[in-house]
Amino acid sequence: MEEPDERRVLRISKFLAKHLRHEPERIGITLDAHGWVEVETLLAAAAEHGFTISRAELDQVVADNDKQRYLIEDGRIRASQGHSVPVDLELPTVEPPPFLFHGTVARSVAVIRVEGLRPMTRHHVHLSPDRETATRVGARRGAPVVLAVDAGAMHEAGHAFRLSANGVWLAERVPPAFIRFPG
């Protein structure tokens, strides 16, 4: 199989994110309660809306995605996390490591100091297991600022954590008392 060029891979990944996480109705698909849709239904809907994706391309984009954003199981596909549409990913609560990290930008820090980390348009706050990943996440919006989250203390205080299939830690919110700010 000929490897799709990087632009094509990026276009397919963005298409999947838009329609498996945020706007499935835009191409006429319906996610089940857990975020799944039949692969063939997705491919047919994409083609009907002028964006043909072969099954081989889809499989390759899912398999090669460095962040493992998507899962294919039993002929169905879903996004691993990051939904703005209501889905239950059926992720159990788990004990987090002592510290997790969140990448952001300087212009957001003042609000975070007051309000903590909120999910904004998503269902959960996304936390990284290491500073390097959080740095990459923060860098998508400008010069990154990495915040340390005292996940162990949060857990002891009764806050729930979930771990997505691709290693992203999820929390409903992070109060400012549990955030360590740089400097």
TrEMBL record:
The record lists the organism as Streptosporangium subroseum
Q: Which InterPro entries does the UniProt entry name for this protein?
A: Ptrans_KptA/Tpt1, RNA_2'-PTrans_C, RNA_2'-PTrans_KptA, RNA_2'-PTrans_N
The family line of this record is: Belongs to the KptA/TPT1 family.
Q: Which residues form the signal peptide?
A: none
Q: What Enzyme Commission number(s) apply to this enzyme?
A: 2.7.1.-
Question: What are the TM regions of this chain, as residue ranges?
Answer: none
Q: Cite the Pfam families for this sequence.
A: PTS_2-RNA
Q: Does the keyword Transferase apply?
A: yes
Output the GO biological process annotations, alphabetical, semicolon-separated.
tRNA splicing, via endonucleolytic cleavage and ligation
Query: Which keywords are on file for this protein?
Result: NAD, Transferase
Q: Species lineage, top-down?
A: Bacteria, Bacillati, Actinomycetota, Actinomycetes, Streptosporangiales
GO terms for MF = NAD+ poly-ADP-ribosyltransferase activity; tRNA 2'-phosphotransferase activity
PANTHER family, from UniProt? PUTATIVE PHOSPHOTRANSFERASE, TRNA 2'-PHOSPHOTRANSFERASE 1
Its biological purpose is as follows: Removes the 2'-phosphate from RNA via an intermediate in which the phosphate is ADP-ribosylated by NAD followed by a presumed transesterification to release the RNA and generate ADP-ribose 1''-2''-cyclic phosphate (APPR>P). May function as an ADP-ribosylase.
Q: What is this protein called?
A: Probable RNA 2'-phosphotransferase
Highest taxon in the source lineage: Bacteria
